[in-house]
Amino acid sequence: MGDQFEPRIVVFACNWCSYAGIDLAGTSRIRYPHNVRIVKVMCSGRVHPEMVLKALREGADGVLITGCHPGDCHYISGNYKTMRRYLLLKKLLKELGLSDRVWLEWVSASEGDRWAKIASAFVEHIRKLGPLRLKEVMEGE
Amino acid sequence: MSEVRIGVYVCHCGKNIGGVINPAKVAEYASTLPNVVVARDYVYMCSSPGQSLIEEDIRKYNLNRVIVAACSPRMHEPTFQGVLKRAGLNPWLLQMVNIREHDTWVHEDTPDKAEEKAKELVAAAVARAAHLYEITTEKFPVIKSAVVIGGGIAGIRASLDLANAGIKVYLIEKKQSIGGKMAQLDKTFPTLDCSQCILTPLMVDVSRHPNIDIYAYSEVVDVSGSAGNFKVKVKLKPTYVDWSKCTGCGTCVEKCPGRAPREFDEGLGVRKAIYFEFAQAVPRRPVIDPKHCLWFTKGICRVCEKVCPVKAIDYGQEERYVELNVGAIIVAIGYELYDLSRLKEYGYGRFKNVISGLQLERLSSADGPTRGKIVRPSDGREPKTVGIVLCAGSRDEKHVRYCCRFGCAAAIKHIYYIKHAIPDAKVLVFYTDVRAFGKGYEEFYQKYRSEDNVFFIRGRPAEIFEDKDGSLIFDVYDSNTGQLINVKADLVVLEGAVVPPKDWEALRRVLKVSCDPGGFALELHPKLRPFETTSDGVFLAGAIQGPKDIPDTVAHAAAAAAAAIGFLAKGYVESVPYLAVVNDEVCSGCGLCVSVCPYDAITIEEREGRRVAKVNSIRCKGCGACAATCPSGAMQQNYFTDTQIISEVVSLAGGAK
Predict the structure, then answer these.
(1) CB–CB contact A29 B106 (8 Å)
(2) Chain-chain contact of B623 with A72 (C-beta, under 8 angstroms)
(3) Count of domains in chain A?
(4) Do residues B176 and B216 make contact, with C-beta atoms less than 8 angstroms apart?
(5) Does B76 touch chain A (CB under 8 A)?
(6) pLDDT by residue (tens digit) across B46-77?
(7) Integer CA distances (angstroms), B524 to A44, A69, B527, B533, B535, in order
(8) Minimal Cα–Cα distance from A3 to chain B, Å?
(9) Three-state DSSP class for residue B52
């Protein structure tokens, strides 16, 4: 157990749905793995692909983008933009052999339990893939 | 502000954080990070001494950034921004770190990892804070008027409170009369006041109030604009009666040959094809139901047109739309009863003598289909044995998980109706728990449970069968005595579950209001802000926030009105701090930002001979879609610039050093 790989995961969460849903998991005391680190944005549509690439480049083993369910965006259509941007990003990541390490998931403000399940599944998924070590490779270690 | 001077404040939140990790260790770690001048921990950072501690430090150490590691920013960001303001700092130089909801509350079983996580989150905030800058907001005037959606007791109370405070109110009701569910009730618990006697005077007050305009038989179809200046599009459904001419004399209703089940009587009574919703309707104006009108269905009759003394009938009427410009919106659309036919084992909808609690209200009402006589719908006979089933669909994983909050007290009231009308009747109440929580409810419960021939049986009926004479036969396992009881009842009353109205889903999307797991509107905070929403200027009144009885509904509605009055009385709203901002020198005027903006807030303008983007600060809502799209980085979002987000991301990706 002691030397189990502990992935480092960066999560982008929109303020209105996903961040609130993650907060709800907290208020409901639903346990999930500690590996996830949340970055708040107002809307998932704010997530620039460069932010995702930067996270992987700088040491993250996986990146999870979360937003409101389709039709529920606080800003009308931000999550649709996220979805389109994500599909393009996945194509690029595929070329780099990294597409398995980035997920897009919808989490509403009422889905604390859903968030905990997604977080657990993603951590487990990345744990199986193993460490990325892009930073070490790029910096010639 | 060249030198970055950061103060880090780690809150224990009593044992919520301090019971899992050691905040002193986190603070100690923070003090080693770049730009950190002072780092402290304290038991309750949000308390008065906690706030003073930060305020004094800002002055003493000349801080220009403050990091508070505590609960969710959704909880106390405004609190700590207030501290910065008092100390003379711009509130947007604050960075919150969520180490409670996102850490100690969910990682209690791995405290070492939770502490490590807290340190990393603080380190990322320190990295981000160096790039924070002052943000100023603009003020815009609010329009001192409100739309109240829903004319039940919640909407009535909210409208009257707003109107009495001098605010113009537009009350939108989808049915032809205001009054809502309360108008259908015979009496109200626990005082047994006649429901109509306490409601209808308020309905009249609403109709006569100079500050209230009622839009009955109307629906909100779209909302644009924002807090302080909403544009609410209302659809006025065709009534086929010109209400401006109609006097409500009722001659048309009297002469109409068309018949249909009366919705107000929950299908038990009959109405005409042109009808008032109920006798005390406000406004007292009829509508034609084209599904049952002989003119619309068969092209004959037109009797109403012939008898109308003021020539108000207009078969060609079409739906119309009006746009209302208001500062605030109160949502008071209430609830609906769960479709009881989905509880297949109880036979509602198949067996005539299985009725809902609301149908019993109609049978018991003096203006109901039986003029207040409680009878079996199948044969009009007086029932001698009545079964009342609590939690029909409520607190049931197969149906709805939450409590309806009034079924128990309503059932006790229903015992009264039956025993008052039929003194020798036997009443069997099948319950899971009896939750008599409100003021006077326990006393009410004790009084009626001890009546003669009233039995409380702890258990839910198994499958209900119908006998040849329409009676109902079923078994109940009484979990108090461990016995299986065979019951034959003349009438079964289901105290059904409560769900949000069907049209809520579409409405909440135009209002940008989230919902809870039951589908009801999500309040801004379950305890402290239960009548506000994440959409500024949109307030909640009554059961749309969650099931409520009448006293709670009225209290909630008055609170929502008070909050809306406060919001409107302030006189202005501020632009969002998270505005999009353009760096003119970098912008090439490509216009990609224009194409992704959902609010048409960006235009391309000629400035000093160059084409550059310009953001309209009233329209911009701060989503950041433009900033994520800009190919040159010229478009940024306040408080969420590329540099701010990436510095946080890089720190988190790299872990604690």
Answers:
(1) yes
(2) no
(3) 1
(4) yes
(5) no
(6) 999 999 999 999 999 999 999 999 999 999 99
(7) 20, 19, 9, 5, 9
(8) 14
(9) helix
- CA pair distance A45, A40, nearest whole angstrom: 12
The terminus-to-terminus CA distance of chain B in angstroms comes to 27
B1: pLDDT strictly greater than 70: no
User: Is B656 within 8 Å of chain A by CB?
Assistant: no
Q: Is residue A26 part of a domain?
A: yes
Residue A74: inside a domain: yes
What is the Cα–Cα distance from B244 to B239, expressed in whole angstroms?
Answer: 12
3-class secondary-structure state, position B263: helix
Residue contact B106–A26, C-beta within 8 A: yes
Q: pTM of this prediction?
A: 0.85
> Which structural domain, as residue segments, surrounds residue A64?
16-129
Residues from chain B that touch A20, judged by Cβ atoms under 8 A, are 74, 514, 522, 534
State how far residue A56 is from chain B, nearest Cα, in angstroms: 7
Whether B522 has its CB under 8 Å from any CB of chain A: the answer is: yes
In a domain, A8, yes or no: no
Q: Using CB atoms, which residue from A10, A47, A56 is nearest to B652? A: A10
Handedness of CA B567, B572, B575, B577 (dihedral sign): negative
Burial environment of residue A90 by CB neighbours within 10 A (0 to 12, 13 to 18, 19 or more): middle
CA neighbor of A18 nearest in space, from A53, A65, A54? A65
- B201 in A contact zone (CB under 8 Å): no
Q: Name which of B390, B458, B383, B389 is nearest B422 in CA terms.
A: B383
Nearest residue in chain A measured CA to CA from B112: A34
On whether residue A37 sits in a domain, the answer given is yes
What are A56-90's pLDDT values in tens digits? 999 999 999 999 998 788 888 899 999 999 999 99
CB contact under 8 A, A46 and B598: no
- Write the DSSP string, A72-98: --TTSSHHHHHHHHHHHHHHHHHHTT-
Cα–Cα–Cα angle for B183, B189, B193, rounded to 5 degrees: 65
**Which ipTM value was assigned to this complex?**
0.97
Three-state DSSP class for A108?
coil
Provide the 3-class DSSP secondary structure of residue B536. Answer: coil
Tokens matching residue B80: 């700590």
